[in-house]
C-alpha cells in the first residue's frame, strides 16, 4: 500500500511523466495498488459529502437515514469514476490508434488510472472544504453546487494531466528530442544553473504534436466530461436531501445540465425551499408564526352592569 501511495505522489510531482521515464512507451506505476488507493480516496470524499445528512438530520426521527446515505456516498464516488473510465476507455483506445500512436491497451489503461489518481487526490484534498461548508450552512442547493464545482475542478485538472501525458508519450514514441527548459528562470547553485523539472500539468517548451492529435484528444476529453457528468446524475443522490427519505438511486429524469440550472435558480431566488423548510422552523422556534405565540385578545367589557345601574 505504501508503495502505491508513493507512486501517486510521484505522479502528482511529475516524476512518472518526465520524458526520460516515458521512453518505454508506458507509465511505470503499480496498476492494482494505485486502484486500491483511488478507492480509499474516493470513499473518503464520499464520506465528507454524506456528512451533510448526518448534521442536518441530527436529532430528528430520520437520523438513521443519514448514516445510510454516508455509506452509499462512500461507495458511489469511486464507482462513479471507475464506471466512467469503463464507458470511455474503448473510445480513447480507438482515438489513440487513429492518430498513429503505438500505445498498447495496457499502457492506455495505466494512463487512465493515473489520471483518475490525480482526480481523486484533488477530491480528497477538497474533503475538508466540503466538511467546513457542511457545518456552516444548511442550504442543500448550495452544497449541491459546491460539490459540482469541486468535481469539475478535479476533473479538469485530471484531464489536463491526461492530455499532457498523451502529448509527451506521442513525442517520446516518435523520438522527438526533449526540449531544454528556459535558462532565465533556472536557480543558481554555486554559479551553475540548475534546470527545473517540468510539472505533471506543465506543457513542455517546444513540445511537438500535430493539430489532428490535439483535436482528437480534446474531443475525447469532452466525451469523458459529458459521460462523467451524466453518470453522476444517474447515480444520484450523493449528498442526500434531508427532507426526503433515503434512497440509493432516484428515478431517471431530466439530465445533469438542466438540474444544475434549476438548482442555481433555486439558490439565487428568495424562496429557497431547502433552507426555509419545516425542519429549519423546528430547529428555530423563534421562526414560528407570530399568531402561535401572541396572547389571546381580552374580551370586550360587558354591558350588563351598565344596564342594571339604570
| Share of helix, binned | 55-70%
**Secondary structure: number of strands:** 2
Quote the beta fraction.
under 5%
Question: What sequence of helices (H) and strands (E) makes up the elements?
Answer: HHHHHHEEHHHHH
Order of strands in the sheet with most strands: 1-2
Q: What's the Cα radius of gyration? A: 28 Å
Describe it for me?
This protein has helices spanning 2-13, 31-56, 63-98, 105-125, 127-136, 140-173, 211-234, 256-268, 278-283, 290-293, 304-309; strands spanning 188-189, 192-193. By secondary structure, the chain is mainly alpha-helical. It contains eleven helices and two strands; from the N terminus they run ααααααββααααα. The longest helix is centred in the N-terminal third of the chain and has 36 residues, at 63-98.
Draw up the topology in text.
Elements: H1 2-13, H2 31-56, H3 63-98, H4 105-125, H5 127-136, H6 140-173, E1 188-189, E2 192-193, H7 211-234, H8 256-268, H9 278-283, H10 290-293, H11 304-309
Antiparallel strand pairs: 1-2
Helix pairs in contact: 1-2, 2-3, 2-4, 2-5, 3-4, 3-7, 4-6, 6-7, 6-8
Amino acid at each position: 500500500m505504501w508503495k502505491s501511495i508513493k507512486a501517486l505522489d510521484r505522479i502528482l510531482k511529475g516524476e512518472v511523466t518526465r520524458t526520460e521515464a516515458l521512453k518505454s512507451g508506458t507509465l511505470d506505476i503499480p496498476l492494482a495498488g494505485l486502484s486500491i488507493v483511488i478507492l480509499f480516496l474516493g470513499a473518503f470524499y464520499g464520506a465528507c459529502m454524506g456528512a451533510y445528512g448526518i448534521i442536518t438530520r441530527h436529532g430528528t426521527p430520520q437520523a438513521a437515514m443519514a448514516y445510510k446515505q454516508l455509506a452509499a456516498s462512500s461507495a458511489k464516488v469511486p464507482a462513479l469514476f471507475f464506471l466512467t473510465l469503463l464507458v470511455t476507455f474503448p473510445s480513447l483506445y480507438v482515438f489513440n490508434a487513429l492518430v498513429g500512436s503505438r500505445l498498447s491497451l495496457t499502457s492506455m489503461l495505466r494512463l487512465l488510472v493515473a489520471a483518475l489518481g490525480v482526480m481523486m487526490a484533488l477530491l480528497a484534498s477538497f474533503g475538508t472544504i466540503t466538511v467546513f461548508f457542511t457545518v456552516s450552512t444548511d442550504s442543500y442547493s448550495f452544497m449541491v453546487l459546491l460539490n459540482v464545482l469541486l468535481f469539475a475542478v478535479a476533473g479538469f485538472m485530471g484531464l489536463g494531466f491526461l492530455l499532457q501525458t498523451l502529448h509527451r508519450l506521442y513525442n517520446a514514441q516518435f523520438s522527438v528530442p526533449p526540449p531544454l527548459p528556459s535558462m532565465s528562470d533556472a536557480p543558481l547553485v554555486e554559479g551553475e544553473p540548475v534546470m527545473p523539472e517540468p510539472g505533471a500539468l506543465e506543457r513542455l517548451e517546444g513540445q511537438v504534436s500535430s493539430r489532428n492529435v490535439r483535436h482528437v484528444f480534446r474531443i475525447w476529453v469532452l466525451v469523458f466530461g459529458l459521460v462523467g457528468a451524466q453518470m453522476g446524475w444517474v447515480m444520484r443522490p450523493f449528498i442526500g436531501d434531508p427532507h426526503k427519505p433515503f434512497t440509493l438511486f432516484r428515478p431517471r429524469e431530466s439530465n445533469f445540465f438542466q438540474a444544475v440550472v434549476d438548482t442555481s435558480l433555486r439558490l439565487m431566488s428568495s424562496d429557497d425551499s431547502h433552507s426555509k423548510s419545516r425542519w429549519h422552523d423546528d430547529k428555530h422556534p423563534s421562526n414560528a408564526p407570530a399568531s402561535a405565540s401572541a396572547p389571546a385578545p381580552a374580551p370586550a367589557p360587558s354591558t350588563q352592569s351598565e344596564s342594571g345601574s339604570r
